[in-house]
Request: fold
Amino acid sequence: MLRRLRTVRSGFPTFTSSWLRISLAGAFCSLALALSVSVPPASFSAARSMLASLSSMPDITPSSGNVLTDSSGALTFTGGPYLVANPSSQATGKPTCNAALPCDEYAFTVSVSDTTSRSKYVRIELAWPVVGEAQFDLYAFDGTTANGRLIAQSLGDQTYVMPDVILIPAAAAANGTYTLRIVPFLPFGQSVTGTVRLVDIPVAAPVDSGVAPSFSNHDSPATLGNNSGEPSIGVDWGPRAAEFKHGAVNTGGVAFFSANGDSAPGAALEARVSFDDSTQPATATWEKVSALNVQETALVDPIGFVDHQTGRVFQLELIGGQGNSTAAFSDDDGKSWTPMMGGGIPAGPDHETFGGGPFNEAAVPAPPPHPLYPNALYYCSQNIAG
Reply:
């Protein structure tokens, strides 16, 4: 899976979509149901005591005297080890914190000069040992967690990275105190270390003297691609035919748009899009260049790929439920197509993806011989079971 570090500033939106969160929430609900159904009344108090014992943990330290000033240096804190997972935020987007669903808190105040407020951020970092998929969530409140206002959050179970990082203004809290809520979403028995420090606001990037970057929308024409779902795009950086690159036309390469066609059954859509930069904004010319053998059926998933190193254009359309796709490639930017195998045993029957890139010639063992095409190609698909 792709991992990335996301820094979340106060007021920025966050997004919640993670199979891990759903799975843990479901597992927690199943555990709760099992306890309620199968634990005899006489044993319930013992089970509750055991659960309370598991969820108890050392408090965050230090617990008081945490004041960030111009000269204080970084504030640090530690917490854990955390033995019980708390995936409760999956239900409503906000974590539940109680004896059975542990959370931790760290409070601090900010007292800095006006000069510091104008030139600094407060950077809050929460780190933990990288063990498996261990993840912690970090929330920052202006005020207490009970009565304050949530101003920033970094959800480790969404970014799948360590550490959690958030930035807030270097100013005193409106409610007097900032409070951090640390939620052990999937702790694996790990402890956390936290740092609260002042960091410089980055200097604005210099303004380039050239033409300013710009963006423009280029809708497909009324008769092409307006009922096309699940599109993908690619670019041949070095068009193979002179008519696709001349003067100000396709200075960055010729683009391709792959999608379902306008009707099914029928041909899937492959469109070639040429951009003319002699005007501002550029004008776009759309042309239908679909491979005739790449056909839509009842269950479809189109995919397109352009190998920008070789200029080869690939168009595929799923044959739903068969673990196969109709497929073709073009070496002249869609002027002609060669049918090819798409998928086949042991490919799965849904959501195919296609891509490629250079072989690692230094790999051990060495890559297979490939005299007909210099790059590796990959067909990936989703299985139903197994």
